[in-house]
Design a protein that fits this description.
It is a single chain. The protein contains three helices and four strands, in the order E-H-E-H-E-H-E. It is of the alpha/beta class. The longest helix has 16 residues. It starts with a strand and ends with a strand.
Length: about 90
């Protein structure tokens, strides 16, 4: 299963990203799940250390509590994810 980890403090943009993921993944026959966060909180940090497989991170470059760049560094240190995208709005 592919796990999309989406973080954006703007709920409208987070929903747009979810819709894009759905549109792309519906064309495939691969199982996937979306994990959406609106800030880099404790639950987000738990995902980094979780045993989920095939993680694809789509991160906001700036949220009220942290930088997406800093989170990307943390992910790279603690997670062997293959894909990491950072966006700004």
């Amino acid at each position: 299963m592919i796990n999309f980890i989406i973080c954006d403090d703007n709920k409208t943009i987070a929903k747009s990203v979810e819709d894009i993921v759905d549109k792309i993944m519906m064309k495939n026959k691969l199982a996937y799940k979306k994990h959406t966060f609106y800030d880099y909180n404790e639950k987000f940090l738990e995902i980094i250390d979780s045993d989920l497989t095939a993680k694809i991170y789509i991160l906001d470059i700036e949220t009220p509590s942290a930088s997406g760049i800093d989170m990307a560094r943390k992910i790279r240190e603690n997670d062997s994810c293959e894909y990491l995208f950072i966006h700004s709005h």
